[in-house]
Design goal:
heterodimer, A: about 240 residues, 6-stranded mixed β-sheet, about 40% helix, globular, B: about 290 residues, alpha+beta, 2 domains, 4-stranded antiparallel β-sheet, 10 helices, binds adenosine-5'-triphosphate, binds magnesium ion
């Protein structure tokens, strides 16, 4: 469903932010992307919603391929991928309702349908009572729940979460993870990049370790996950 | 829902930057009023000049002793000019009749003999009715043996020509300044709006919003500034026209004229706002996308 084939990304002053990556992510998987700061996690995730295109290699997302994709097709792809960020990327001066409705407005749905759907989504994240509150007035944990509701609005086949708990306290982080797990249980793939080893240490999900823009061999990482984590934590 | 969103965003842009928006609308109103008024004045002058030119008659007087047959020869010679539209032959007798009509006295009663010479009334093709050609024509025709004098009312035409030219040059100069001023102010409001919403634009882009949905609120913002400016300007122009009508008994404007004033002024306002903002939005939004 998501495939990286020989992917290299060169930024203008950082050549090889990721180098020759080969990865295959299956439909319905919950995948954790782990690695120290600057290792290339965000770069990999940005490739999935084609915020950047690879310098070398081909990314394939569902039926879209980075090879000769048009801006219009990229927009279409983004409407089928849910994204969640560390800094939430909510439109701060809009209400909770309007933020969650945004992908549906972009899709051109009818007002009544949008209303019903947003109602369900806000109920799902326990924020119905805050529907008309401005996003800027929310707590950080609430903001991230709203962002996840927005990412889920179009019922995407995959949710990409780039350090979604990076700004949250323990309890809020746990809430966000539970929410993502619930989404995963309903059949949506989730790819989450994180630093927070404490949060995910007991989860059974597939882990991909990145260091210096390269994926560490699975045999080593699977064989010694605990040490690997400790090692990574120390290098930070 | 998309449309509703665009309209709300547009109104939000206008309200958020209301001070520069008001300044822009006022500038558009004043600039449009000057532009249209200038256009009208040039139009009137041009028509006046055109009328004067197309009704202009060149009188060619022959020596008084020239006979009718010799006069016909001269007319043949004049016929060789392909710049001439029409030639009217005025015989001694016709000249006397014209004299009688104009002065109420029979020339034959005053003098024993008709002293009026044979003459031609010449109308040139409109394109050649300018002072340069007229003076050349006068010189050439006066060189034909038997021609005494060539006469036309050149002073008025020359004056009107100079005036029309001056108005046209000044008009183009003023037009450029006004277009530049309108462009500058519309661009400024669009720039402020786009930068105020740069985060929202970037987020909508990540959510897969198309170019049009992102840009339309800003393009419409410019168009609405043009529309309101156009309405103000049209109202002002109509008041000015009514005032002129009531001050000068001879002047009156048709109702079609008033309708045209509305339609053209407002359409021009919308077009200027729309085109300026469409161009500016493309530039500023692209800048935001290239920055990430
Ligand atoms: N837009 C950019 N322009 C230039 N270099 C960049 C850009 N984004 C990232 N980089 C560089 O690419 C490398 C990988 O960055 P990336 O953001 O993918 O790492 P990361 O694993 O997400 O780190 P973090 O844990 O800090 O989020 C780093 O060296 C970073 O400095
Ligand atoms: Mg990152």
């Amino acid at each position: 469903m998501i495939q990286f084939s020989n992917i290299t990304v060169n930024y203008s002053y950082v050549p090889g932010a990721v180098k020759d990556i080969n990865l295959k992510l299956r439909k319905g998987d919950f995948t954790l992307l782990l690695g120290p700061t600057g290792s290339g996690k965000s770069t990999l995730l940005r490739l999935i919603y084609m915020d950047i295109l690879p310098s070398e290699g081909i990314v394939t997302i569902d039926k879209w391929s980075s090879y000769r994709i048009t801006p219009r097709q990229i927009n279409l792809l983004r409407r089928n991928v849910g994204v969640v960020f560390q800094d939430f990327k909510l439109i701060e001066n809009m209400s909770v309702y309007e933020n969650v409705a945004m992908p549906l407005i972009i899709e051109g749905y009818r007002r009544r349908y949008i209303k019903r759907l947003v109602h369900i989504l806000l109920d799902e994240i326990n924020m119905l009572q805050s529907a008309n509150q401005r996003a800027s007035t929310l707590s950080l944990g609430e903001k991230q729940r709203v962002a996840i509701a927005r990412a889920m609005a179009k019922n995407p086949f995959v949710i990409i979460a780039d350090e979604p708990t990076g700004n949250l306290d323990r309890e809020a982080s746990q809430n966000v993870l539970s929410l993502l797990e619930r989404i995963h249980q309903n059949g949506t793939s989730v790819i989450m990049a994180t630093h927070d080893y404490e949060l995910i240490k007991d989860t059974p999900y597939r882990r991909i370790y990145i260091e210096n823009g390269q994926v560490l061999p699975p045999a080593r990482t699977i064989a010694t996950p605990k040490t690997r984590i400790n090692l990574l934590t120390q290098t930070e | 829902m998309k449309l509703l969103f665009v309209i709300r965003q547009t109104l939000n842009n206008l309200w958020r930057e209301r001070t520069p928006v008001v300044a822009t609308i006022l500038t558009i109103s004043i600039a449009l009023t000057i532009m249209i008024a200038l256009f009208e004045v040039s139009w009137v002058l041009y028509n006046e000049l055109h009328d004067l030119k197309s009704n202009m008659v060149i009188e060619v007087y022959l020596d008084s002793q020239i006979s009718g047959t010799r006069a016909r020869d001269i007319q043949e010679e004049l016929n060789n000019y392909n710049t001439i539209d029409r030639i009217r032959y005025v015989s001694k007798e016709t000249a006397a009749e014209i004299f009688l009509q104009e002065f109420g006295e029979n020339i034959n009663d005053i003098l024993d003999e008709n002293p009026l010479p044979i003459s031609f009334e010449i109308r040139l093709l409109p394109a050649f009715n300018h002072s340069d050609y007229l003076s050349l024509f006068k010189k050439q025709v006066e060189n034909i043996p038997g021609v005494d004098e060539v006469h036309y009312r050149h002073v008025l035409i020359e004056k009107l020509e100079t005036l029309t030219e001056a108005v046209a040059v000044a008009g183009i100069f003023v037009l450029i300044i006004l277009l530049f001023a309108m462009n500058l102010l519309v661009r400024n409001t669009i720039k402020l709006s786009v930068y105020a919403k740069r985060r929202q634009i970037a987020i909508m882009n990540i959510l897969g919003a198309g170019n049009l949905l992102i840009r339309l609120p800003f393009i419409l913002e410019g168009a609405i500034e043009g529309l309101i400016g156009g309405i103000f300007s049209a109202t002002g122009l109509i008041i000015i026209h009514k005032f002129i009508e009531s001050s000068f008994a001879l002047v009156s404007f048709s109702s079609t004229m008033y309708k045209m004033l509305w339609v053209y002024t407002i359409t021009l306002g919308i077009l200027i706002g729309l085109l300026t903002s469409a161009e500016a939005v493309g530039r500023f939004v692209n800048k935001i996308f290239s920055k990430k």
